[in-house]
Write a structure and sequence with these properties.
The structure holds two protein chains of two kinds. By secondary structure, chain A is of the alpha+beta class. Chain A folds into two domains: 228 residues, P-loop containing nucleotide triphosphate hydrolases (Rossmann fold), CATH 3.40.50; 109 residues, OB fold (Dihydrolipoamide Acetyltransferase, E2P). In chain A, the strands form four sheets. In chain A, strands 6-7-8-3-9-10 form a six-stranded mixed beta sheet, with helices on both faces. A six-stranded mixed beta sheet of chain A has the order 13-12-11-15-21-14. The relative contact order of chain A is 0.12. In chain B, the strands form two sheets. Chain B has a four-stranded antiparallel beta sheet with strand order 1-8-3-4. The longest helix of chain B has 33 residues. Classes of the chains: A alpha+beta, B alpha+beta. The interface between A and B is medium-sized, with 23 and 16 residues.
């Protein structure tokens, strides 16, 4: 049974249609990540689930209850904001107790719940402090603790890591992942960072301009992208695309490269149509007999990885990534081959 | 560099311009009536040569004596309890007849300043005094001299006393009554508008209702309405209400028997209402601008936590708006405390209920040239706002900066 269900959800701000016909089902205990470029509507969608934005049309149900007309507090959700939104004049304890106090819980029950949440997040020693006296990571944890004490059906995270520095971001990401396994709570997490999306998610929802582009597990999206956008959005460096024509059922014929037996993504294309061939930089192999030729224009050495930027004779830019530290210089000509089974035709 | 020096000079000038009247007011109020009438306040801080009068001894000497000794300061201070004289004796004015050197056998009247240590003739004896005020009057044979009043010039040390305060505070009830009346007017006239304004500001900032922006524009534009423009309609309104209340009073109680049905149209309540009305636009404007600057996510978080508007207001907005609330309270408190014109037109006009500014204005007539008393009253009326300001200045400064600096 779906824990959270969105049916044909639409949202317009005046004339601007920001969320278009979104249908989505999220199962109990799933960790779902909404990912997309900025302005794709992922935060708006999250805020609509939270009840902070109204729907223009459509239905949202949480735990089999239609929630469109319920205020945020009655929807069984808890939200962690990007800026944490801690109450600056209250101690950590009171920040966490605030919602319980409003719901009329007894003092002892509030104490029990807050202490338990603090124990889960290992911040019992911080309970008497005010937010101003906490570091960024600690504030983040208080914000999560404030969500935990409410014992919600669904946790909502709105870009919770974007205010942290790189090292802390990694640690907190790991912590959130552990916490999700520990609590087993249904979680929706909004981010523009594909690394967060890939590492955290059971299920990724890729959004573009208010539309769902693809829903699936991280590896599904990575290996079988349903469209050019998803293929280009996930993976670093970006997937390479080459222009050409579709020949036969799944063969690609282009100026720079051809491939037989690649995975045809689109069902609408037929032989002779203009299509694109997509190959991930990691799936290319240096091969002197290879079909793809390129002239190196840039070498990036990241230590763990070497990334080459090349130009084909036809003038198409593409990238090659390898875990080896290659002995290559700018201006050198290289040839590559690839396994057509790992290539996609869009 | 030049601009910084210039800034300091301008700042120093401003401080000087503000501090001098204050010092003058306080200094004058602490001086004796004589001193405040005869010399400027700036002479009060350094030794100044002043004339005094003392008598050589008390009346009623019954035994003949050969000498009388004493101290000039002790003699003077017998009558100067509040502002005791101290310092060094410069000279004593001798006024009397001495033998005329040009006309033997005759005397001439002279006036002469006698320095310390020099003998002078007093009541047929010889008086010698020292700079510290000790004097001795000796006679050739035992006599019973009458006391003699002498004028003495003393390089007098600065002396201050609270006599003027005792007089205005204790000797009649005008000033204490004015203090009480001013508090009765000012405290509600500060609390009522700030409370209403805080609610209104929250609504203008965070609640959606039709016509919100237009209503806010109207409220803000009311700030430019001059108080004077509204006096007549306000007075008419209050007298209408008073008339109506008098009738109600007559109908509900048996006041007709004692002929006490009249309800005053000028009262504390009418002052509260008027000050509230004129304070609200600025209060709403200031508070709304502060409250709208609070992070939106904070309020959304509270909504998710289940707080309704009232709970958000009481538990979030009010504690977080303390700087803005405090700074407006100071504005309103000072304005109402110092207000003369509204109190004069609309406030109660019986003697006991006059607020401080009216009382001060009346004292200008009754005290006339008794500057020390006038100044003492003025200082008393000034101390309250100064104390309020000092107590809340930390919020005031933060409140003025509100919104311009993130995270304050």
């Amino acid at each position: 049974m779906a824990q959270l269900q969105l049916k044909d959800v639409n949202k317009s701000f005046g004339d601007v249609h920001v969320i278009k016909n979104v249908d989505l089902e999220i199962n109990k205990g799933e960790f779902v990540v909404f990912v997309g470029p900025s302005g794709c509507g992922k935060s708006t969608l999250l805020r609509m689930i939270a009840g902070l934005e109204t729907l223009t049309s459509g239905e949202i149900s949480i735990a089999d209850r239609l929630v469109m007309d319920l205020p945020p507090s009655k929807r069984g959700i808890a939200m962690v904001f990007q800026s944490y939104a801690l109450y600056p004049h209250m101690t950590v304890y009171n920040n966490m107790a605030f919602s319980l106090d409003l719901q009329g819980f007894s003092k002892s029950e509030i104490n029990e719940r807050v202490t338990e949440a603090a124990k889960i997040l290992q911040m019992e020693h911080l309970l008497d402090r005010r937010p101003a006296a906490l570091s960024g990571g600690q504030r983040q944890r208080v914000a999560i603790g404030r969500a935990i004490v409410r014992d919600p059906e669904v946790f909502l995270f709105d870009e919770p890591l974007s205010n942290l520095d790189a090292a802390l971001r990694h640690d907190t990401r790991v912590e959130i992942s552990k916490l999700h396994r520990q609590l087993g709570a249904t979680t929706i997490y909004v981010t523009h960072d594909q690394v967060e999306a890939m590492t955290l998610a059971d299920k990724i929802v890729v959004l573009k301009e208010g539309r769902v582009m693809q829903v699936g597990s991280p590896m599904e999206l990575f290996n079988q992208p349903e469209n050019e956008f998803v293929a280009g959005f996930l993976g670093s460096p970006k997937m390479n695309f080459f222009d050409g024509q579709l020949v036969g059922s799944a063969d690609f014929q282009g100026d720079d490269v051809s491939a037989q037996g690649a995975r045809l993504v689109s069902t609408e294309k037929s032989a002779g149509d203009n299509v694109k061939l997509g190959i991930r930089p990691q799936h290319l192999v240096i091969d002197e007999q290879g079909a793809l030729a390129g002239n190196v224009t840039l070498v990036e050495r990241l230590g763990t990885e070497t990334i080459l930027e090349l130009l084909t004779p036809g003038g198409t830019l593409f990238r090659f990534a390898s875990a080896e530290s290659l002995d290559v210089e700018v201006g050198q000509d290289l040839r590559f081959s690839f396994d057509a089974a790992q290539a996609h035709i869009f | 560099m030049i601009s910084r020096t210039l800034k300091h000079v301008v700042l120093a000038l401003i401080v000087f311009i503000w501090v001098v009247p204050f010092v003058s007011l306080v200094a004058t109020s602490l001086r004796s009536e004589l001193a405040s009438k005869t010399s400027g306040f700036w002479t009060a801080f350094t030794p100044t040569e002043l004339g005094h009068r003392f008598s050589t001894h008390d009346r009623g000497l019954d035994e003949p004596v050969l000498s009388i000794d004493g101290n000039i300061f002790d003699r003077i201070n017998l009558t100067e309890e509040d502002f005791p004289v101290s310092g060094t004796v410069e000279s004593v004015l001798f006024k009397g007849r001495v033998a005329d050197p040009e006309n033997p056998g005759k005397t001439q009247l002279i006036r002469k300043l006698v320095p310390p240590g020099e003998a002078m003739s007093v009541r047929d004896g010889e008086l010698v005094f020292q700079p510290n005020g000790d004097y001795i009057l000796t006679f050739d044979e035992p006599t019973i001299p009458k006391p003699k009043n002498l004028d003495v010039f003393i390089n007098q040390d600065p002396v201050f006393g609270a006599a003027a305060y005792e007089e205005v505070l204790l000797e009649n009830e005008d000033v204490p009554n004015a203090l009480i009346a001013s508090f009765i007017v000012t405290i509600p006239a500060t609390i009522i508008p700030i409370t209403i304004a805080a609610f209104a500001a929250y609504a203008f900032a965070w609640m959606r209702f039709p016509g919100r922006d237009w209503l806010f524009v109207i409220v803000v534009s009311l700030m430019v309405v001059p108080t004077q423009l509204a006096f007549l309609p306000i007075l008419q309104g209050f007298s209408g209400i008073a008339h109506w209340a008098s009738s109600l009073n007559a109908w509900l109680t048996d006041c007709e028997l004692s002929n006490s049905c009249e309800v005053a149209s000028k009262s504390y309540a009418s002052l509260w209402v008027t000050h509230t009305a004129f304070g609200l636009p600025l209060a709403i404007y200031l508070l709304r601008n502060y409250i709208v600057g609070l992070p939106r996510e904070l309020l959304e978080s509270a909504r998710i936590d289940g707080a309704n508007h009232l709970q958000i207001f009481v538990r979030l907005i009010v504690p977080l708006s303390v700087p803005a609330l405090a700074s407006f309270s100071i504005f309103q408190f000072l304005w109402v405390w110092n207000d003369l014109i509204v109190a004069l037109y609309i406030g109660p006009n019986n003697g006991e209920d006059l607020v401080f500014p009216i009382r001060l204005q009346q004292q200008l007539g009754t005290f006339k040239d008794q500057l020390h008393l006038l100044n003492a009253s003025a200082v008393i009326s000034m101390i309250v706002p100064v104390v309020v300001f000092l107590a809340m200045q930390k919020y005031f400064i933060r409140g003025l900066l509100a919104g311009s600096v993130k995270g304050g």
